[in-house]
Amino acid sequence: MAFDIEMIKATYARMKDRIDAAREIVGRPLTHAEKILYNHLWDGVATEAYERGKSYVDFAPDRIACQDATAQMALLQFMQAGKNKVAVPTTVHCDHLIQAKIGADKDLQEALNQSSEVFKFLESVSNKYGIGFWKPGAGIIHQVVLENYAFPGGMMIGTDSHTVNAGGLGMVAIGVGGADAVDVMAGTAWELKFPKLIGVKLTGKLSGWTAPKDVILKVADILTVKGGTGAIVEYFGEGATSMSCTGKGTICNMGAEIGATTSTFGYDESMERYLRATDRDDIADEAKKYKEYLTADAEVYADPEKYFDELIEINLDELLPHLNGPFTPDLGTPVGEMTEKATKNGWPLEVEWGLIGSCTNSSYEDLSRAASVAKQALDKGLVTKAEFGINPGSEQVRYTADRDGLLQIFEDLDATIFTNACGPCIGQWDRKGADEQKKNTIVHSFNRNFAKRADGNPNTHAFVASPELVAAIAISGKLDFNPLTDTIINKDGEEVKLDEPTGFELPPKGFDVEDPGYQAPVEDGNGIEVVVKSDSNRLQLLTPFTPLGDTITGAKLLIKAFGKCTTDHISMAGPWLRFRGHLDNISDNCLIGAVNAYNQETNKVKSQLTGAYDAVPATQRAYKEAGVKTIVVGDHNYGEGSSREHAAMEPRHLGVAAVLVKSFARIHETNLKKQGMLALTFANESDYDLIQEDDTFNFLDLNEFAPEKPLTIEVVHADGSKDVIKANHTYNENQIKWYEAGSALNLIAAENA
Fold this sequence. Notes:
The protein is α/β, with parallel strands linked by helices. The chain is built from 26 helices and 30 strands. It is an enzyme of class 4 (lyase).
């Protein structure tokens, strides 16, 4: 039986009235995404048609999911909200704080030894406030959510950018910062700019070496890392319905890599099969009653150009397997074109590691298809040329795959089976030799491949591919291996060719598991005490931020970031994950990966107090101690990447008042607003070039801060000359109140006082 079935039934029961009313208000047929959005309006039945990309709308999500790294800060904030229990079903999943090194059992035990304080904190807070707790080793948040909590037509938010994975089961699932989650936990509305809609029509059918992963790799190549910003991507067509539910999840998961608000598919038979296979007949039975409301109106898919803001068509019969990378997930290369491209760009062709798993590709189907390639290698006398690592997505997937002999196949090829956790995908990989920073190539089925992301080595060239292609390339040891045409020499000196991979959409014997790793909260948590030691270096109770005020003058430039500046650059993961619950300690990684535009170096900026160059956090702490506010300047798509609000909270904690860039990634812009900072964009992008290293900034009309009214900033240069520039913003009246209160949380706490 499903979790929270009564909540799901209630969501379905109101669907007809709300969606029928919305269709009348809008005056046309509705897409699948629109139906979900209008069914989850905070105010109930729609009374107006919202303008895509412009209208700010209050929503009432059905549930929340948090992973352990982000849950710490989210729950520390929730503890300030003045509530006794979360207002909607919420779960915490311990999957980020487990480092991959030796193998599952030893790595898990090491994590329990190293992070017991954090796990106990999360467990006790979950118990106290009525939150479901998934223990370390239970699995990766997004796979566990797909198996247990996702449901067609639902809306959820999660404190991880890859929350969007649940779109594979027909949800609108959106990654947010912890402060957004706290809004919903505290029983208040969640605000989102009504998204634009991108339609992706899939014709034909996947076959051979081409996998669902290749669909999103192709879409990323088309749209780039910012092409989906502010939009929901909705997939449809015969190619979509012919695909497995977990394959759909893979496609939605990597929608985060194109900046999309989320991605989704309409309800179909593959989703019903998955629901029933994961012991959720009750949801499948309910969904059948409302099937027409769980996908787009027929007119939309029949004439999509009329209903989507942008339309992409992909013929799956013609789609080739892709490798995307290095250093960015949108640089696509079809197999057969890699030799020329890699040679031209100096990418190492020898592959040192092949890694399968992560929240993106760790389903039973993924493992079975990759195992079919591995089995061929064993049968045909091949020896794996690259090292091999496997991260199962959940304990249920791991247990079932082990029962069915899939894991043994990988182990027979000397693969390392890591814990059911994120591991190398988020930098939690203690890779031998990475500290030597040698130039090398790895391939993986993960979603992100930013520089230093997997192993901390800036010279590791990481390429993203499907699990089956990763397996084939790892066996061959060559980045440019094309399994459609190429052969490999086996240990007997024979040329052998790999056959097309095969697999199972769902386990033929069904799923099984002894201990899924779930712990339900106690009925009444009022008597539970949450202990945070004052001398802890892992956890720190939060102090409310002081409002920045309506007068900011004499602000100094902290850093002008050059080029790509992701959340990995602003707040690195990897070893820094251990400080995710301690704001002051983790602030020592603030912007240390950002490239200084003036010297092209990282973590080396000029202090206007001393004239000396020092680390970014040290320089900023000196400004804070001197009572000097600062600003950060950046390029396009600033804050691309994960949902981590630490990238906003750290500069806020250290005294940065404003971030002024050419454009923002959606989640990061919201996170800055939530923490009471100024998130601004150049009205004239070329003004970025006016900013000099010793500049001082005076905000001339901040006292008139209002929606749709640009701010005026006087930029004073070291020689006394000045430039006056305009800075745009997207704050509405409520968001300006966050700024005036010092943070959104301050406002909530005041309302609940």
